[in-house]
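Internal tracking record. Fields below are filled automatically when a chain is submitted to the structure queue. Please do not edit lines marked as system-generated. If the sequence contains nonstandard residues, flag them in the REMARKS field before resubmitting.
Queue: standard
Priority: normal
Entity type: single polypeptide chain
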Amino acid sequence: MNIEKPVFNAPIKKLNGKIITIAGFLIPVTTYGNEYVISANPYSGCYFCGNAGIESIIELKFEGNNIRYKIDRFIMVEGKLILNSGDDLGFIYTLQNAKEVK
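SYSTEM-GENERATED OUTPUT FOLLOWS
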């Protein structure tokens, strides 16, 4: 099976490992726990519904946060951007140590 790896342009590569702030719609990945992605689109138009590409979401790894967020909540988050090298089957982008910015 041939799995394509993500390809990033130079400006995106420069952000790898940097702290960034991004805004979007929160979408839970599971019905339990604290696993979310932030999406450029609300749930009805997001990647999981087939209305956008995987490049439109970022996996969020909250730092010690057990807050349960409502679906489609528009939020601003900050964290360390990690680009997926393609060695695993995870999301293309991950925001580590994510925290809500008010």
